[in-house]
Task: inverse folding
């Protein structure tokens, strides 16, 4: 039997190496047999939280969330209706059910202001996650502020001023007749205006595209800029009043009027007319 430089029989070393491989494969097979899963939460629990509030004319609604979407729909009524789906996920259904009561929604109610927001869960939730999906029916003329962290914000049918902010997610608004401040960091912003009032329209994103759809008769002062991308205003009749380049545009629509400010860093900007649709 030959010996290696370190005095260990070559044959024994080979056998030991083979045993090591067999051991590793055995452990891998055992883990597979036990269905060990990292990052996959198969347990789920849900419930529904509902409220109805009276809001004075011209009042304010604030919706704050951390994980999950926010949807706001304008309706012809003085009542604010909030329906929140609370969803907990964990390795097992039992673990998810234990997490569900820890998802707390805070209320601060006054005649002229309604505040509803998801509270942060204290401590670490290792091996678990949660989200809240808000569905809000609001008086059309109300001032609405929707703030999110991880999730989209969508709005439709509002005539009052609107602020829609998120960090990771898209902002989508349709059939608006009031001003809007829409902002996100990682996501796109798409806004469609049924008419244009006197309140400013401001759209912002860092990593994403901006799309603004306007009535053909809208009177506005447009300012748009992007860093890495391009600007397309071919769908509107724009009288250039300032700079006109691939990445910066300043001009007037139908003689000028409502301020419109569009800004993105990594993404393009498109302004189009509803007639073109």
Result:
């Amino acid at each position: 039997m030959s010996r290696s430089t370190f005095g260990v029989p070559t044959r024994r070393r080979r056998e030991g190496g083979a045993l090591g491989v067999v051991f590793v494969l055995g452990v891998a097979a055992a883990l597979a047999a036990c269905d060990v899963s990292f990052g996959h939460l198969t347990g789920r629990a849900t419930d529904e939280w509902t409220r109805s509030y009276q809001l004075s004319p011209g009042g304010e609604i604030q919706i704050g969330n951390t994980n999950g979407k926010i949807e706001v729909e304008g309706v012809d009524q003085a009542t604010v209706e909030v329906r929140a789906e609370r969803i907990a996920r964990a390795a097992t259904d039992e673990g998810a059910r234990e997490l569900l009561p820890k998802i707390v929604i805070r209320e601060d109610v006054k005649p002229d202001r309604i505040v509803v927001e998801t509270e942060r869960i204290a401590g670490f939730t290792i091996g678990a996650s949660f989200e809240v999906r808000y569905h809000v029916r609001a008086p059309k003329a109300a001032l609405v502020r929707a703030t999110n962290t991880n999730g989209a914000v969508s709005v439709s049918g509002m005539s009052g001023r609107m602020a829609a902010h998120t960090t990771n997610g898209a902002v989508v608004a349709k059939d608006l007749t009031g001003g809007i401040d829409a902002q996100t960091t990682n996501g796109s912003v798409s806004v469609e205006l049924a008419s244009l009032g006197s309140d400013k329209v401001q759209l912002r994103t860092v990593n994403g595209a901006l799309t603004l759809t306007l009535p053909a008769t809208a009177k506005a002062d447009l300012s748009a800029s992007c860093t890495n991308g391009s600007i397309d205003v071919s769908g509107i009749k724009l009288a250039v009043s300032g700079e006109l380049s691939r990445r910066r545009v300043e001009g007037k629509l139908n003689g000028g009027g409502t301020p419109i400010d569009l800004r993105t860093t990594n993404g393009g900007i498109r302004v189009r007319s509803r007639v073109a649709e």
In short: The two ends are 85 Å apart (CA to CA).
